[in-house]
Design brief:
Elements (H helix, E strand, L loop, with lengths): L1 E6 L17 H12 L10 E5 L13 H13 L3 E6 L12 H10 L4 H4 L3 E3 L8 E5 L7 E5 H5 L2 E7 L1 E3 L3 E3 L1 H6 L5 H8 L5 E2 L8 H5 L5 E6 L5 E6 L9 H5 L5 E2 L6 H18 L4 E7 L21 E5 L2 H14 L11 H5 L3 H9 L7 E4 L2
Parallel strand pairs: 1-16, 2-3, 2-7, 3-4, 7-14
Antiparallel strand pairs: 1-15, 5-6, 8-9, 10-13, 11-12, 14-15
The structure holds iron/sulfur cluster (2 copies).
Organism: Archaeoglobus veneficus (strain DSM 11195 / SNP6)
GO molecular function, one term: oxidoreductase activity
InterPro entries: 4Fe4S_Fe-S-bd, 4Fe4S_Fe_S_CS, DUF362
């Protein structure tokens, strides 16, 4: 599988030759899109999702809107009808957990229909519960809940800010699809193996019942004299929004949070679900290995980049494009003082690649084509 690459460096050697617009990464992106054929799947009239990450309030190193605009223009040039999209975050109380909050944060961070050149639509609806469910029969997950607007569009261009990730090793295209294109119930399944349980610390305040969007929490009278109330979660009904966990002040709701390799494998399985629904041939992947922070854009801040800017990678293969980025990072020297010591050891950055390849959604073996 081919992965096309454009270097982020300008490398102007003579000071008098400083005015060279073609050295801009935005211009390079234009050329990369042309030469790679990454958008060749777009047909006239197709509704195309341009999936990116808007960051949280305070995140400062997300993908610049000018790159997204360039991709939007390229989709339009091919006759497609693009919209720029993102999904809500896990939980119910943070701004990023609803479509309204997500859009407000997007605006603050510089993503508006004016800056990106297309409508912005939150793909999983107001509360992050609008989805199409698909069976996958994976090692960890049996079903994936694909964000409805993603499931209903004709194709997806992943405009991915490639960075490190403190739990999943890397945040590349596999994560942009596996986490970013699914609704809240699948985001829960990525992070947690079991639905929440209410423990004995519960004091019966009832806050959790008010936030639960599907009335999965009920109150029973208990005790020999009927003088006690017990709150329980119907785990068959619960969709794992974690709203109750967020509002409980007594730490009376137990949620088991996964760590390590299993999270990465669950992300890959969610990506499989999205690929099944949209169709493997209806994707293009563009990874921007620039501002490579040591953590994901869902943090409400951006640490200093862990590596110098590398460049832009484009491919029709979700696994190859991420593998090419990892290989480039392994050859690069981390920035002095960056948070990468032992990082590769404990986060297993290859886990997503290996599991995604096993699931058949892409190939890690690739040829790197340099676009000058
Ligand atoms: S919010 Fe916590 S303490 Fe209050 S009823 Fe629910 S589980 Fe019990
Ligand atoms: S019981 Fe389930 S659906 Fe209801 S608030 Fe808690 S996590 Fe969300």
């Amino acid at each position: 599988m081919d992965v096309y690459f454009s270097d982020a460096r300008a490398s102007v050697k003579k000071p008098e030759e400083w005015y060279q617009p073609h050295l801009s990464p935005v211009k390079k992106l234009e050329k990369l899109i042309e030469e790679s054929g990454v958008l060749d799947f777009v047909d006239k009239g197709d509704i195309i999702a341009v999936k990116t990450h808007f960051g949280d309030r305070g995140t400062t190193r997300t993908l610049r809107s000018v790159f997204i605009r360039k991709i939007v223009e390229a989709v339009k040039d091919r006759g497609g009808k693009p919209f720029v999209t993102e999904t809500t975050g896990l939980g119910m109380t943070k701004d990023r957990s609803t479509a309204v909050g997500r859009l407000l944060i997007a605006e603050e961070n510089g993503y508006t229909s004016q800056t990106v050149g297309a409508p912005i639509i939150i793909a999983d609806g107001m509360l992050g519960l609008d989805c199409v469910t698909v069976d996958i029969n994976g090692v960890h997950l049996k079903k994936v809940h694909v964000a409805k607007a993603i499931a209903e569009c004709d194709g997806v261009v992943c405009a991915t800010h490639f960075k490190l990730h403190m739990q999943a090793g890397i945040g590349g295209s596999i994560k942009n699809v596996g986490v970013g294109c699914v609704a809240k119930p699948s985001k829960f399944d990525i992070h947690c193996p079991e639905k929440p349980v209410i423990n004995e610390k519960c004091d019966g305040c009832g806050r959790c019942t008010e936030i639960c969007p599907i009335n999965a929490i009920s109150c029973h009278v208990a005790g020999d004299t009927g003088n006690r109330t017990i709150y329980t979660i119907d785990r068959n009904k619960c969709i794992g929004c974690t709203g109750c966990y967020e509002v409980c002040r007594k730490r009376a709701i137990d949620v088991e949070w996964l760590t390590g390799r299993e999270i990465s494998e669950r992300i890959a399985e969610c990506a499989l679900g999205v690929v099944r629904v949209v169709g493997k041939d209806n994707f293009g992947f563009i990874n921007f290995a620039m501002d490579i922070t040591p953590h994901c854009d869902c943090r409400p801040y951006s640490d200093m980049p862990a590596f110098p800017d590398i460049g832009i990678f484009a491919s029709r293969d979700i696994v190859a494009v991420d593998k090419a980025c990892i290989d480039a990072l392994l050859k690069a020297r981390p920035n002095p003082g960056a948070l990468v010591d032992d990082f590769w050891e404990w986060t297993e950055p290859m886990a997503q690649i290996e599991h995604a390849e096993k699931l058949g959604i892409g190939i890690s073996n690739y040829t790197l084509e340099i676009v000058e």
